[in-house]
Amino acid sequence: MGLVVNGYPNRVLLRGNTLDRVATQALNYRDDAIARGLGYFAYYNQTIAAGAKSYILFRCPTDRYTVLLGRENTTNKELLYYRAYSSYAGGTIGAAIPIKNLRTDTAYSSNSQVNVITGATPTAGTDVTNFPIFGSVGAGNRVVGGTDSSDTFRLLAPNTSFLIEFENASTSAIMVYTQYTWFELSPQVIL
Fold first, then answer.
1. Both ends of the chain: CA-CA distance in Å?
2. Residue 22 lies in a domain
3. What strands lie across the sheet with 127-134, from one edge to the other?
4. pLDDT digits (tens, 9 = 90+) for 147-158
5. Is residue 131 part of a domain?
6. Is 34 a domain residue?
7. Buried b / exposed e along 115-143 (16+ C-beta atoms within 10 A)
8. How many domains is the chain built from?
9. Which of 10, 82, 128, 150 is the most exposed place for a label (fewest CB within 10 A)?
10. Residues 71, 154: contact at Cβ < 8 Å?
């Protein structure tokens, strides 16, 4: 069952925000979840050849909702296509991408999985994100557009997977830094 606080099992701590909380009323729901130790992040650095594609697989926990707070992609070239698909075929799951906690002393570990995957084929028409990222070469190599938004998030259902595709549309190899930030919630706290 895990840690029990004030008679409530872990991961139910956010229910109605009626339990003890950090003594700062300026916290929003996201900050409150992270303060309770339920926030996570994973980052990945890769180099993709000109015209090539690369994939990672993000799998949500079987027993929790995943609230995707942010996606960041930074590149050193002119054009990268970032796509996420809800369905795919085949593929060989490779190395795990480490998941870290946004609160360093929490007892709650993530049940999500993020892995490199090769040989996967996205199912056409199942894309949930299709976003071109235009770099500014020679101007600090920062993206002109971004994939992060501070005023929106996605609620991902338990036991779902997403194939993330990176397509290098520039004329030379591209370096890509990717970071995801999320927290995980028990279905009991989703109204």
1. 22
2. no
3. 88-96, 113-122, 53-59, 161-168, 79-85, 127-134
4. 555 556 688 999
5. yes
6. no
7. bbbeebebeeeebeeeeebebeeeeeeeb
8. 1
9. 150
10. no
Quote the mean pLDDT of the chain.
82
Write down the pTM of the prediction.
0.80
CA angle at residue 15 from 10 to 19, to 5 degrees?
Answer: 80
Tokens 């990717």 identify what position? Answer: 178
Domain with 154, as residue range(s), is 40-189
Q: Output the domain CATH number for residue 132.
A: 2.60.120.680
Residue 62 CA from chain centroid, whole number: 16
